[in-house]
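I hope you will forgive my troubling you with a question about protein structure. Here, with my thanks, is the record as I have it:
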Amino acid sequence: MLSGRQPVVYLRSFSDDRPAARLNGGRTEEEHLAAVLEPVGPFVAVGRPGEPLPELGARRMYLKDAEWKDVVERLIRSAKLVVIRTGNGPGLRTLDRDGTGGDGRQLDLPGGCIAFGRNR
């Protein structure tokens, strides 16, 4: 799935999937992010449990409730870039509380997203 390149990890609250799926110029917000960020590295996200079809944009991985946090933390540590669509979901609060962050470089993106780099 990652083709040997460091991933660009997209973190968001699952409740933000629908608002982010609004069309903007024929593409969803997430499709715009994917088009810009895929050259940096594989654009990946955790899929919402039980969704019948993934939203267009990031490549999805579906994880069990007991494993998602460990997998996401490993992804963040190996990431070239982490993009966070700011929200108030419990998963985002958990990761923030654990201090899983970048190297201090931050980029504000449209749609309430921020990105931080990983110094590798």
Observations:
- The chain has four helices and eight strands.
